[in-house]
Specification:
The chain is α+β, with helices and mostly antiparallel strands and 84 residues long. It has two helices and six strands, in the order αββαββββ. The strands form two sheets. The chain has a four-stranded antiparallel sheet, with no helix packed on it. The protein has a two-stranded antiparallel sheet with strand order 1-2. β5 (64-73) and β6 form a beta hairpin. The chain starts with 7 loop residues before the first helix and ends with a strand.
Length: 84
């Protein structure tokens, strides 16, 4: 509900940062500690394997951890997902 928008190229760059553990060519954009918190289930029981991280839905795809987030606005919808 934030009415944010982006290009597919910028979403690809964002995913590269996530998969590179927060590193960019000029240094660190996102600390390892922050990234770990983003990809950790929040307000979950110890047995839970799916739920919400910080900014991401964390789930399962064929036994692997699937992380993503979807959105829609005025005739467009998108889904960004990856398997860390």
């Amino acid at each position: 509900a934030g009415c944010l928008y982006s290009t597919s190229g910028d979403l690809g760059k964002f995913m590269q940062v996530l998969l590179n553990r927060g590193q960019i060519d000029k240094g660190v954009l996102l600390s390892a500690k922050s990234l770990k918190e983003m990809l950790t289930l929040q307000f979950a029981n110890e047995k839970d394997k799916t739920g919400f991280g910080l900014g991401f839905v964390i789930g399962d795809l064929d036994g692997k951890v699937r992380v993503g987030h979807g959105g829609a606005i005025y005739g467009f919808s998108t889904e960004l997902a990856f398997l860390p």
